Predict the structure.
Amino acid sequence: MSKHQSCLVLNAGSSSLKFSVFRQQAAAGNLNAILTGQISGIGGAARFEAKDADRRQLADHSWDDSEPMPREKLLRFALHWIHEHLVDDEIVAAGHRVVHGGKEISAPLRIDAAAIDALEALVPLAPLHQPHNVAAIRMLAEIYPELSQVACFDTAFHATQPWQARTFALPKELSDEGVCKYGFHGLSYEYVTHSLLAARPELANGRIAICHLGNGSSLCAVQAGESVDTSMSFSALDGVPMGTRCGALDPGVLLYLMREKQMGLEEIEDLLYRRSGLLGVSGISNDMKVLQETDDPDARKAVELFCHRVAREVAAMAAAMEGIDALVFTAGIGENSPAIREMISRRLGWLGVQVDAARNAGRQFEISAADSRIPVFVVPTNEELMIAKHTLAVLNPGVGHA
């Protein structure tokens, strides 16, 4: 009996490695997630978890931190477990989420030695993320040298943005060497755009503002199916406040911190990436759910600041498109918090946004009120499925993957 052909998707971070396995249904050309999991706590007390398609726990294994397991051994453990568990499947390809493709890479890339060198050359543009992405690719190539691998980029969807949206008002030589806006969360925006247009084809040429709201948050202006502007820019720090990241910040603040507080590079990096955002403002948590469930006034301020800034960015996206035909919420907060969606939408009433309370509370696909000038949608994202589709499309050009 022949085995099912499946695609492994890896998302490697600094202290975690998330994985999914998608099975290809040959007859229909569909991809179905049959396994998800992650290794968390890498570098300390690591933990391996895996769940099936129905979110039932299949494995839960921990290591103490007395002698931290090397990243490669943890990856080998995960791959061995997947191989032993999925006896009816053959992993034929691996797709990787890679944060940065730079100015030149605007499409998924099949991995070879030259491709790995190209990805490593981009480490200065994403020093906190890119090294871990590349390390996972290298390790997998060493463990399974015959396995085809494809890199899929968070920046690629934004390559369609016009020069005005991508350029900082800095000396031209800096722009030429790559100091410009790139944008991130592109795999999410691509998936959400495709999903929305499949359900609402009348918006194919429309102007859509998408709010990807989670622990990392950003917005994207999508016009005629393409990105034309986004709130994140050179790094994943720009735009709206996030779980622990500051969002848009006057560069003069950095000069002040260096001059008056004698803060160095690593200290400032830690402040902006890990101690700011919802956590910094509230002093309590980076978790929006936790902040909404407390009566602490600083928690309320963090929530209100977040909603204020997101609404302001929606207006900026509308300005970039010279209008707006639809508003979309996605990702962890965007999909799961009716209260946040309502607070943001209320601030956009002047733009014609009206949310129906019952639809919003019921987490329906379209949550706008009957008299709303602009339709409002909640569209679940699935970056892993987007990666799997890209991976198989690169390896099998001309074959559709629904």
